[in-house]
Amino acid sequence: MEFNQNAFSETAQRFMRYARIDTQSDPFSSTFPSTAKQMELLSLLARELKDGGVSQVELDEYGYVYATLPSNIEIPCPVVCFCSHVDTAPDCSGTHVKPILHENYQLQDITLPDDPTIFIGTSEFPYLKSKLGEDIITASGLTLLGADDKAGVTAIMEAMLYLVKHPEIPHGEIRILFTPDEEIGRGVNHVDMAKLKADFGYTLDGGEVGTLEDETFSADAVVINIEGVSTHPGYAFNKMENAIKIASDIVASLPLEHLIPERTQGKLGFVHPVKLEAELENANLHFIIRDFETDKLGEYESYLEKLTQRILSKYPGSKYRFQVTEQYRNMKVILQQKPLAVEFAEKAMQDAGIKIYKSSIRGGTDGSRLSFMGMPCPNLFAGEQGIHSKKEWVSVQDMQKAAEVVVRICEICTRHA
């Protein structure tokens, strides 16, 4: 199978069209999707799939786009799903994104016009050195770009529409899933697995070309509620126990050189405070707990609760509640048992002449949870770089390579009928 340079000619304009739509999710919202504005892009994607000839397209009440490209062969083969999320991270503004196309990049520093103090260069992003002559898309300096994960959305759309236009390429039944709220950990909360009915799937939510991620953190959330003792400050002697100070004491007692994200890398996990809500009488401390070995989460949580008990021992009138919530688990457990998805991805990249970089994600994807919901789901590259920041960027050619790999995976599935 050969792909010429015009195979995915609409990639740049498609991505920039998606990037202009504000889809930032909100971790403090109780709705699903967490923000109504995500529905604008999800509705657009549903229309583009229908207009492009993809059948059985549905946008449901939760904001999920489900679609099916029927098989064009007579014999059964594995059903494959491709998934990406539309929301952007709350960490950086996604309002009024102005994507800029820098054609024929020549390894120069790229200055962002709306804030000339911000530039994107090879010293900070060595991967840019491999992008000579390619077309780079950035934001303007005031917002993130949204390559995480609109690059993945773009690659899937390009691949599906390419298959529609090229019926001579054999493929089995293909499922498409676009999700909201992945960035706040709720991306698959309401996914209907009966609608997917896929043997395996792939999220396209990775970085450099050739990246194949088959392992993620396991993750829990912890909330510590502190109930202090409130009195009038003028008459507080030996009576007041300030929940703000108790919570602050817990955070200040965390280690400084280990077990925190600022001092861990590779396969090392961490305990990380992410939110503090506090008044004199009551405080809530929110933590995320991460490690590649699921059993270690319990060790970290036991450490954190013992630390809380030690701090509270200085405040005899105060009480605490310690609540643990499972978030996601390391997908490698499932992918080791059902390796076909990883094997097909490796074969597709080899056929495309792409060097494979297998790695672990110090985070999670929708695929982490989908794997444990019955659909083994490794993560593939989409080209996204500098994510969650104003320095986010993506190469058009990287997205096109991702689309090519998707098409090749679909064709490879037919060899295993």
What do you see in this structure?
- The chain has helices spanning 11-19, 38-51, 147-165, 193-196, 243-252, 294-312, 332-337, 340-351, 366-372, 396-413, and strands at residues 55-59, 65-69, 80-85, 100-102, 110-111, 119-120, 136-138, 174-179, 200-206, 211-216, 218-227, 270-278, 282-291, 319-328, 357-361, 379-381, 393-395.
- It is an alpha+beta fold and 417 residues long.
- It has 2 domains: 11-216 and 330-416, Aminopeptidase (3-Layer(aba) Sandwich), CATH 3.40.630; 218-328, Alpha-Beta Plaits.
- The strands form 4 sheets. Strands 1-2-8-3-9-16-10-15 form an 8-stranded mixed β-sheet, sandwiched between helices. A 4-stranded antiparallel β-sheet has the order 12-13-11-14. Strands 4-7-17 form a 3-stranded antiparallel β-sheet.
- It is globular.
* Spans where pLDDT lies below 50 across 5 or more residues: none
Task: Give the total of beta strands.
Answer: 17
- CATH names the topology of the largest domain as Aminopeptidase
How would a crystallographer describe the biggest sheet? 8 strands, mixed
Instruction: Give the rounded overall mean pLDDT.
Output: 96
Could you outline the blueprint of secondary structure elements for this entry?
Elements: H1 11-19, H2 38-51, E1 55-59, E2 65-69, E3 80-85, E4 100-102, E5 110-111, E6 119-120, E7 136-138, H3 147-165, E8 174-179, H4 193-196, E9 200-206, E10 211-216, E11 218-227, H5 243-252, E12 270-278, E13 282-291, H6 294-312, E14 319-328, H7 332-337, H8 340-351, E15 357-361, H9 366-372, E16 379-381, E17 393-395, H10 396-413
Parallel strand pairs: 3-8, 3-9, 9-16, 10-15
Antiparallel strand pairs: 1-2, 2-8, 4-7, 5-6, 7-17, 10-16, 11-13, 11-14, 12-13
